[in-house]
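Friendly challenge for the regulars: who can give me the structure tokens for this chain first? No prize, just bragging rights.
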Amino acid sequence: MPKRHADEGETLASPAEALKNGQRATPVQVAEHQDEAMGEFEDPYGDDFESEDEIEEEEDEIIELNDDDEDQEEEATEGYENSEKKSKPKKDTPRLYLPHRSAPLGADEVLEPDPTVYDMLHRINLNWPCLSFDVLPDNLGNERRGYPKSTYFVTGTQSKRKKDNEITVIKLSDLSKTLEIDDDSEQESDNDEHDSEPILESRSLPTTDTTNRIRVSPHAANTNEYLTASMSESGDVYIWDITPHFTAFDTPGTTITKAMNRPVHTIRAHGGVEGYALDWSPHVTTGQLLTGDVTGRIHLTTRGTSSWTTDKIPFIGHDGGASVEELQWSQSEKSVFASGGSDGFIRVWDIRSKKHKPALSVRASTSDVNVMSWSKNVSYLLASGHDDGSWSIWDLRTFKANGNDESPLPAASFSFNKSPITSIEFHPTEESIVAVSSEDNTVMLWDLSVEADDEEIAAQRRDDASGELDDIPPQLLFVHWQKDVKEVHWHRQIPGMLLSTGGEGISVWKSISV
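First reply, four minutes later:
Bragging rights claimed.
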């Protein structure tokens, strides 16, 4: 998976630095115990709205006409209207941006989101890019549909200097709905849910290397132990206990010692070889995880009563030592996992096998298998995203044992994206919905249950005289643009909400489509 290196001399000002340097402050309230170096919320609406003082000044400038002289009133009004028509500049007609067809944005072009298609959209500028992050499960309840919202997540940085890298635990609160604007009156809609400003709080744990992948234990909320694994650029895998950092957000007076900022265990079985693949077992509550590196080795690490143990014999099976790009545990079988490699194969393994060889292998792509997602709702469905921009859904019941020459076909496959797929994830509750991010700077939401009939296709073609939408698949629900997007995750406790990370920070959003 390609990395995004920080530009030479690139820095992002913290809120305190912005105010000190006279920059425009962004709408963020900083908690007293917030890290000074943490990022800031970006104002998605800029200076589009006039202040009350500006409106009052304009009202004072209106000429009061003489009510007794109707001719003068009509003449003055007509002159005002004519001058307004002459002086009012024409608005540029917005152009539809199609990621698979439109030319890249020019140096003086920007892509503006349409706020009417988002229920919520917040963007956070970070000091350094993050290749990976994970949403922290919390105890605020499931099916949270009201506003404002709160969420917790953990990231690992890719800084310009090694010593500036860190693991960052973040809490976002008071996340309001997207501000809707009436185009005619240009007045804000009267909605109490817009009154609050978002709040960002953070805790940092120093680390010396870029974090390629970071994942939190899926059992964290139930065990109240927030074990988090980070796979570093150096090849070491660090296991952190971020429980005190998470607890400190909502428990005033929580003390975090230096010892709490250090890993509780380091996996060195990869021998300094870099890797990206990492996944916690959804079945072992005490802690069990898989890690894979670029030489094709997969190691299993299990937590015992007093320490962590990594199997000395790795699982090896990808052709020619091809890189292991992704690992996913089965959601229903305790001993089964799948790997995706740069050899284009998906391989299914059983950790009980003493041979440490794959039981099933399927060629998924002629390019790398970059990412995968095992459905939590349908245990036999596995999604894979590839380096050529295609992605597929596989029915594991069609996979044959190794040695069988018959290669199964995917249950569904799309080649709409023309750039490598960087992340793919099934919706946590809706079995047919998938989020897919790509190096074309997009996150796309798809609904595989949608089928367009001939009448709908004909109607679309009649409405679209330009033919721009002819090749848009009916299953494509929504496109979110984000520069250098690397990873996307659904929030399992807030229906329809997603978080995505890219070269310019984190987006927290919810579309009107899901």
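The mean pLDDT is 83. Helices lie at 15-20, 52-60, 70-87, 220-223, 243-248, 454-463. Your move, everyone else.
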